[in-house]
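Propose amino acids for all 824 sites.
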């Protein structure tokens, strides 16, 4: 492909194939396609060589022209150790994870290109886009592609990352908030004073002012006061609209900017020609009231987002050691220097320094690939890693970021959809449609209003009508109805014990037709279990048959596991905590745990796991066998009481016509009780291994069922991920399964029918708020086009209506929730 300049034969305007901008003469041609500059041609060549030209099929001219100010080495500073440490989310010997904010992202083509970065450079392993946040999380090999070169690559294709050192220190957000308050203050000061100096004009019936010289002075002062509002207070509106225009689309700020310019220009014209005092009060009032409305919206949204991300969204706790004592601490309360005790399969909630001699860490939660790595004492362990094998101690070195953990929770490796499906969903989503069609429609209606009244000989009325239309018609209200309803519902679910991965889970919950329960730790209450030791030799049921040494060994072995039975046995032997040197600790899902102690293989688990092939004892409860090498010493009989309210739970789900099934890895000792409870013996499945549970879910789905799987997430992670919706039950919140879509506190499981009803009611609230938004826009347009609405009134109505939608959604959702949960 060789670009060659050619002389155009006609004066027709030629658009750049990549970005859509006008092409100057002479044209740059590559593959028969015109480009406005070498930057756009270079990006096209890069995409074409990597077979990524499908990028251009999503939208016409989707690209952004690369930054003209870019120079080689612009991002070299990000490779400095002190900067790199603040930027990266995770790093090991081979891979690094980093999240960049890319404000240039604006459409589904951007998603397609960014999530195919690995095809542009071999150093990129994967990329996941957070479209609403304009962020991309990239997994790369720094040995091949350093961070600085990654930033260079993003810039060359038109997505320059925004990197602020103030952001790294957490100062930028506070600075922006102070700036917004200053903008409101300046606009409010100017608006108030302009109105005060306009009083003579307001009350001079039919006259501009009785005192001409004083009137002129006030008019010029009004003009002077309006300039800071135009140049400073309204700056964000202009910047947002300009960035959208550079991206070749119209956003919701474009009509606002046009209305400000029309009002200001008209006012300056009247002052210059001495035909009137202008409309500086309207112009400053428009900016003032819009800024107040947006500030209140931002504060309300920030409050809801904070509640969702930190208070109710990710209920993880950690075990902190203080001497020999252990206590559970919410991750939000962890401090630098806290000593964590992490067991097998538990999540590392914060960056920490390893204190134990060694540990195996599975970073699949971060990278999506299950490749455990060995770490030695003193090495840094990153948040999101999962301990594999023997328990380990570590010191916290960095404050916890739950927002980062929730981001990991939404990793594609744990989601049941691919990137192409997500891009298609985003492309057809409401925000994208609004950006494409709503704003151009507003401009069309505004222009039509102006032309209609002008042709009627009332140009001033036409200007008022056009300006009012530009302000009062607000697509953001349509977006707010969806955003705030979802955010509020997520917070409500969290307050009542159900923690959602993301707002999309709510809609899934409304479609459920079948619920599959795991038994142990789900329907049963493991923290209230009773434990008895039964010796196979003597047949007695006392702990005296176990030697003190064996009690210490069993206590140490179970202390490394988070399985409910291990936790109960460890609690039963809590007084026998001793330092026992365990080697080659291993936990087999659905079977048991084992380790070498002084050359002997100690096993604790199911009969098959320890090699017990005789007839199982016909007694109530679950049996966990203990074996030393090939000799079975006996078993722990564990009786788990069913949760309070489980009968009501089953009855209410029956009333909702939701089919119910039970999957259990235990024996069928409880078959009689469960058959009486659920009513259908063929819906009960016992001695189920993890693969068996997965096959049961698949069988129900093949019959057309929308399946909700409820389990502890330890032996049923595959079933949780396979189901349309997976809920993990947790009694102590120290364990977590990334395959689940939600976490429910164990004592709140009986609220499952209320959760489903709330989700369905939430969809009704969303439709109701959406209807209110449409009604507002319809009525607003109808009044504005007739010229009966002053622009400043429109500026008050728009944020007022937005706040009304927010309050309506919040109040209605909370009232419904209180009625649903008041009896529980």
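Proposal:
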């Amino acid at each position: 492909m060789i670009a060659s300049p050619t002389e155009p034969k006609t004066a027709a305007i030629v658009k750049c194939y990549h970005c859509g901008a006008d092409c100057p003469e002479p044209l740059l041609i590559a593959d028969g396609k015109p480009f406005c500059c070498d930057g756009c041609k270079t990006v096209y060549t890069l995409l074409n060589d990597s077979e990524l030209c499908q990028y251009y099929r999503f939208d016409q001219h989707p690209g952004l022209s690369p930054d003209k100010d870019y120079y080689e080495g612009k991002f070299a500073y990000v490779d400095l150790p002190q900067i790199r440490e603040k930027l990266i989310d995770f790093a090991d010997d081979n891979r690094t994870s980093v999240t960049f904010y890319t404000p240039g992202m604006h459409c589904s083509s951007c998603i397609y290109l960014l999530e195919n970065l690995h095809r542009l450079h071999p150093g990129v392993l994967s990329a996941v886009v957070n479209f609403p946040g304009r962020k991309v999380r990239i997994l790369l090999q720094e040995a091949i592609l350093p961070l600085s070169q990654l930033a260079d690559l993003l810039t060359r294709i038109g997505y320059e990352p925004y990197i602020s050192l103030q952001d790294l220190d957490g100062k930028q957000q506070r600075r922006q908030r102070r700036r917004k308050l200053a903008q409101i203050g300046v606009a409010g000061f100017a608006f108030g004073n302009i109105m005060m100096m306009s009083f003579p004009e307001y009350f001079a019936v039919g006259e501009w002012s009785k005192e001409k010289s004083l009137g002129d002075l006030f008019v010029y002062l009004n003009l002077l006061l309006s300039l800071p509002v135009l140049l400073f207070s309204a700056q964000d509106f202009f910047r947002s609209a300009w960035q959208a225009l550079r991206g070749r689309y119209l956003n919701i700020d474009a009509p606002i900017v046009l209305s400000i310019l029309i009002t200001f220009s008209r006012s300056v014209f009247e002052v210059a020609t001495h035909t009137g005092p202008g409309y500086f009060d309207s112009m400053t009032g428009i900016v003032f009231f819009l800024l107040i409305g947006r500030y209140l919206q931002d504060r309300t949204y920030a409050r809801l987002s904070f509640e969702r991300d930190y208070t109710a969204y990710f209920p993880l706790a950690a075990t902190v050691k203080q001497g020999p004592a252990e206590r559970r601490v919410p991750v939000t309360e962890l401090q630098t220097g806290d000593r964590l005790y992490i067991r097998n399969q538990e999540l590392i909630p914060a960056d920490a320094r390893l204190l134990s001699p060694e540990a195996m860490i599975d970073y699949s939660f971060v990278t999506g690939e299950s490749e455990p790595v060995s770490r030695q004492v003193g090495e840094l362990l990153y948040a999101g890693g999962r301990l594999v094998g023997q328990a380990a101690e570590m010191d916290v070195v960095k404050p916890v970021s739950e927002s980062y953990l929730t981001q990991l929770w939404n990793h594609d490796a744990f989601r049941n959809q691919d990137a192409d499906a997500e891009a298609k969903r985003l492309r057809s989503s409401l925000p994208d449609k609004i950006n494409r069609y709503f704003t151009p429609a507003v401009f069309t209606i505004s222009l039509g209003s102006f032309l209609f009244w002008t042709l009627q000989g009332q140009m001033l009325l036409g200007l008022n009508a056009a300006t009012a239309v530009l302000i009062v018609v607000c697509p953001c209200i349509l977006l707010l109805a969806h955003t705030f309803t979802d955010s509020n519902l997520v917070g409500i679910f969290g307050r009542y014990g159900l923690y959602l991965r993301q707002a999309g889970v709510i809609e899934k919950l409304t479609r459920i037709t079948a619920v599959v329960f795991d038994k142990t730790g789900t329907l049963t209450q493991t923290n209230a279990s009773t434990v008895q030791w039964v010796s196979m030799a003597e047949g007695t049921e006392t702990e005296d048959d176990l030697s003190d040494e064996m009690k210490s060994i069993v206590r140490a072995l179970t202390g490394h596991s988070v399985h409910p039975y291990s936790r109960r046995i460890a609690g039963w032997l809590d007084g026998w905590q001793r330092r026992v040197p365990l080697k080659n600790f291993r936990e087999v899902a659905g079977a048991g745990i084992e380790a070498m102690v002084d050359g002997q293989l100690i096993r604790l688990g199911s009969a098959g796991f320890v090699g017990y092939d005789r007839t199982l004892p016909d007694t109530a409860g679950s049996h966990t066998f203990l074996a030393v090498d090939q000799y079975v010493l006996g078993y722990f009989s564990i009786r788990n009481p069913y949760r309070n309210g489980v009968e009501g739970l089953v009855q209410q789900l029956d009333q909702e016509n939701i089919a119910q099934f039970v999957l259990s890895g235990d024996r069928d000792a409880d078959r009689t009780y469960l058959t009486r409870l659920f009513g259908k013996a063929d819906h009960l499945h016992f001695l189920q291994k993890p693969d068996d549970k997965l096959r049961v879910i698949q069988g129900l789905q093949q019959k057309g069922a929308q399946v909700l799987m409820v389990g502890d997430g330890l032996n049923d992670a595959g079933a949780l991920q396979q189901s349309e919706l997976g809920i993990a039950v947790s009694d102590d919140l120290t364990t977590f399964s990334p395959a689940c879509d939600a976490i429910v506190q164990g004592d709140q499981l009986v609220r499952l029918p209320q959760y489903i009803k709330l989700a369905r009611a939430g969809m009704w609230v969303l439709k109701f708020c959406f209807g209110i938004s449409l009604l507002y826009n319809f009525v607003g347009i109808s009044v504005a086009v007739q010229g009966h609405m002053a622009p400043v009134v429109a500026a008050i109505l728009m944020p007022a209506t937005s706040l009304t939608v927010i309050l309506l959604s919040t109040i209605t959702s909370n009232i419904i929730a209180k009625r649903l949960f008041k009896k529980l």
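The two ends are 71 Å apart (CA to CA). The mean pLDDT is 76.
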